[in-house]
Amino acid sequence: NCVFSEIVLENNYTALQNAKYEGWYMAFTREGRPRKGSKTRQHQREVHFMKRLPKGHQTTEPHRRFEFVNYPFNRRSKRTRHSVPR
């Protein structure tokens, strides 16, 4: 059985940290496959989750605009190709 603790990050996303192994997080790839806990870190996008209310439940809080989180590129990160050639 896995036990996770819920962490609310500064960017209002939620991360689920493994209770037994500190520094391991629940994460999924873009294809929906689970990632190994030992390969995950808190700053990775695959670890950030958004909470959703069940159907039929309304929130009393006013809606806020969605904020994009941009991380600076480094030499090891993948970059997206430009759709228009330069």
UniProtKB/TrEMBL annotation:
Sequence segments annotated as region (Disordered): 33-65
GO terms, molecular function: growth factor activity
Basic residues composition-biased segments: 33-42
InterPro entries: Fibroblast_GF_fam, IL1/FGF
Family from the record: Belongs to the heparin-binding growth factors family.
Protein name, UniProt field: Fibroblast growth factor 8
Organism of derivation: Ambystoma mexicanum
Name of the encoding gene: FGF8
